[in-house]
Amino acid sequence: MQIYLPIAEVSVNAFLLLGLGGIVGVLSGMFGVGGGFLMTPLLFFIGIPPAVAVATEANQIVASSFSGVLAHLKRQTVDLRMGGVLLVGGLVGAAVGVEVFTLLREMGQVDLLVKLCYVVFLGLIGGLMFIESLRAIRRSRAPGTTKVIRKQRTWIHALPFKMKFRTSGLYISVIPPLVVGVLVGILAAIMGVGGGFIMVPAMIYILGMPTKVVVGTSLFQIIFVTAFTTLLHATTNYTVDMILAVLLLIGGVIGAQIGARIGVKLKAEQLRILLAIMVLAVCGKLALDLLLTPAEIYSIGTGGHG
């Protein structure tokens, strides 16, 4: 069933979009990531222009993340105070990111920037997560080893403006969560991602939050930052395709509920290594697309007519 997307100006199979939304929704519920880092490149692959994919995907993330947060709130695995601090940083970052996006769009460079950002970030994050997850699995299998306790004192504990985060069992400075929030906000605007693939590792390894609280807290922050990003893109760049968003959204909401159930049954290390493999696979495909000669050589640079 082909459907025409007015803003993207392409025809796509509606069931394909529903299926993609569902798959990404499952990942969202399992890993606590908005799923945009996978969905946005998938939209590139099926012919959606990057500028439209980025802005519209931010919209779909809101719904799948909201669905995931509801499941986590029931289990009381959301640190609302930490989520609030991350959110303040995220909104500032999103506003900056949309400005950069608009500037690059006017210059006709936005498509290349978006794809390059994906290759760099997915490669770095995927690689680091994969190595760390392998180590964690080895440690859990090694006989007679004691459980590794997180380092109690790090440079973060020396920073001022401390605050108690009861759900996470932390007493740390608000500066690192704010900085993480700003970075994630910028990425949400430029890459059309919730930023969970950066926020989840940052919350575990930099802030020292317990893994069980990280997923729900990450999704909580993602909802508001991506909603704000979508609003800015819709009003400044006019690149949000509502038909595309609705189809992805329906699939995403259903998938997120299934994913949250699967996530509970798997160990944290297994979840992380699965996510790392997926991140690296998408990174590889995007890198190949950038390096290989496109099929329509003469279609490049058509946006540059002054």
UniProtKB/TrEMBL annotation:
It comes from Thalassobacter stenotrophicus DSM 16310. It is a multi-pass membrane protein. InterPro entries: TM_pro_TauE-like (IPR002781), TSUP/Inactive_protease-like (IPR051598). Keywords: Cell membrane, Membrane, Transmembrane, Transmembrane helix. Belongs to the 4-toluene sulfonate uptake permease (TSUP) (TC 2.A.102) family. It is found in: Cell membrane; Membrane. The chain crosses the membrane at residues 12-39, 85-104, 110-131, 174-207, 213-232, 244-264, 270-288. It holds the Pfam family TauE. This is Probable membrane transporter protein. The lineage of its organism: Bacteria, Pseudomonadati, Pseudomonadota, Alphaproteobacteria, Rhodobacterales. Its main location: membrane. It comes from the Bacteria.
